[in-house]
Amino acid sequence: MASQAIIFRETKDSKGFYILLAVLGAFLALGALAFFHAEHHGHHVTGMTNQVVWGLPHVFAIGLIVAASGALNVGSIGTVFGKKIYQPMGRLSALLAISLLVGGLIVLVLDLGHPDRLIVAMTTYNFKSIFAWNIILYNGFLALSAVYIWTMMDRKVKKFYKLAGVAAFTWRLILTTGTGSIFGFLVARDFYNSAVMAPLFIVMSFAMGLAVFILVLHFAYTWTGRPLGDVVMNRLRYLLAVFIGGVLLLEGARHFTGLYIAQKAGVENFILFDGGIYTQLFWVGQIMLGSLLPLSLIFCRKLANNRVALLLAALFTIVGGFAQLYVILIGGQAYPLVLFPGAEVSSDFFDGVINAYEPSIWELMLGLGGVALTLFMVTIGVKVLRFLPDSLSDAVADPHSK
Amino acid sequence: MNQNRVDEYRRNFMTTLGGVAAVAAVVPSFVLQTAHAAGEVAAKPVDQAVTNAKRWGMLIDVTKLTDGGAGMVAACKKEHGWGDEAHSADTQKAHWARVVKVTDKLTQNSFSLPVMCQHCENPPCVDVCPTGASMKRADGIVQVNKHICIGCRYCMMACPYKARSFVHEALQDQKPHSPRGMGTVESCNMCVHRIDAGKLPACVEAAPDAVIFGDLNDPNSAVSQAMKTIGGKQIRADLGLNTGVRYHGI
């Protein structure tokens, strides 16, 4: 721990707490409404089709799941790699990780054609399916993160702190490998079938998870009137830059490989150059707003120690992450399957055409409901248990205590 | 299934086999034309488990399909009742089979063929299904167990042939022999209900001169003999899935 004693305390009862819960509750209600609407009428009320079978709910779900494993990193850096400045944030890191994962999974489950059969998914496994493995990985992640929190909160089990931290960190790497492999294992789709999807998703999780953590940390401290110093925030700031760079590196490798291999060039050219909304989302959303802008905000000397610049950088990193997931998920499905390489195909079932997808309001409501659930859980969590240090001021989070 | 029907197919099979033997040596490309009927199926008693002794498959000669397979697709639609979902958009309506027109970009050579579930030996849809609802029967028929399908659509992402559809709305007046359900995925099941009763799949029956159906494991079956003579190409053979539906003339 840092040089000065860290005191963890629940957040105080306040009007703001209830207002926040009410706002999040409204989004939760809208999400529930969307679920019941689609559940009752069937998926024809959504924008998803037999061509674009995964839509906006999956962008939200996978975004939250990816961010979940990344949010745990802050804790892992403290526990596994022994960086003491990160250790006071470990509890929040694990709480946020659990909350993000639950928020993501709820969207995924409620979008199923048969959410009522969740028990089937939990009891009947096809172990050749990465999806089945993911169900185990998600549950294990929740359990390990909970144990990790326990070892941080209860002195009686403190001796297992390192062990729990290492286990949770290892598990999260495997988990995100599994999430990326959902796409990597799709043999028939040239935009997906690559082993790079696993490490790409891992580094995406680093960036998105940290960005979410930065925003949550800031607002948790500001809204409860607790001091949060630049020492901590600047550490997170430059770490975020490293992760954004990592995403760019693997994205570059992926797209250049795609352009180089003739078989993949069709879909690559579509995404990078002729894909309309997907091309715009890639260049403007992911690259400019989601990567270059945050990097500029982080490294601009005039903005050193500027909290707003950091918050914007984190926000745009998340925007970029969602743009990236939208391009991967929807863009990858918009491009038609290649039945006959080198030939043009047509049919009354949309062969050979770019598949249109227009997300419905219900899908947006369901996705935002997942986000709301995440924030709801964090808000309640820090209120009822001692997740947040009283202070993360520079004096407390001593920069020299490595 | 009545015995007469089976006998009829057996007779037809013998005729086919005779035709194949007679003509194959001389004019291979006319093999299927001589085949009056389209294959052989033996009825399976209901108390007998499906075994891997047989692997059902078919050979479709697209050069003999004057309509590109539209008749086969129509027969499938009639048999299973898909595609008339009232509330679904066209992009959401089920399609168990469809006619695909293919034109080579360089040569401009063009042909049409019916595309449905290809009943792969190594089906990606079965590999990815988390619950095992997407399954391959021992006799090679790939289908969905709609009782344990959770509707995640991962199989639709995995299928290289876009052979699967998701039911986007509640359905009425279903065919008793082909139950479907909102929120589950479905696809061509090779008319498993007909095969088990000793009948040919509806699409095969609709195009007897162009399609031979039978046991791919039996080297002497009409379909095996025909493929040995004229070949049987796979769509996306590069994926190594070893499909049970093969084509001539693509």
TrEMBL record, chain A:
Signal sequence, renumbered to the chain: none
The keyword Cell cycle is assigned to this record: no
Keywords for the protein's UniProt record, in alphabetical order: Cell membrane, Membrane, Transmembrane, Transmembrane helix
The keyword Cytoplasm is annotated on this UniProt entry: no
GO CC terms of this entry: plasma membrane
Subcellular compartments: Cell membrane
InterPro entries: Electron_transfer_protein, NrfD-like
Membrane topology: Multi-pass membrane protein
Listed transmembrane segments: 17-38, 58-80, 92-110, 130-151, 163-188, 200-224, 236-257, 277-298, 310-331, 364-385
Family statement: Belongs to the NrfD family.
Descriptive protein name: Polysulfide reductase NrfD
Encoding gene, per UniProt annotation: nrfD
From TrEMBL, chain B:
Gene3D superfamilies assigned: 3.30.70.20
Single GO MF descriptor: 4 iron, 4 sulfur cluster binding
InterPro entries assigned: 4Fe4S_Fe-S-bd, 4Fe4S_Fe_S_CS, DsrO-like, ET_IronSulfur_Cluster-Binding, TAT_signal
SUPFAM superfamilies for the chain: 4Fe-4S ferredoxins
Keywords: 4Fe-4S, Iron, Iron-sulfur, Metal-binding
PROSITE patterns: 4FE4S_FER_1, 4FE4S_FER_2, TAT
KW Iron (keyword) present: yes
Chain ranges of the 4Fe-4S ferredoxin-type domain: 140-169
Family matches, as Pfam families: Fer4_11
Keyword Plastid among record annotations: no
PANTHER family attached to this UniProt entry: PROTEIN NRFC (PTHR43177), PROTEIN NRFC HOMOLOG (PTHR43177:SF3)
Name recorded for this polypeptide: 4Fe-4S dicluster domain-containing protein
Species of origin: Thiothrix fructosivorans
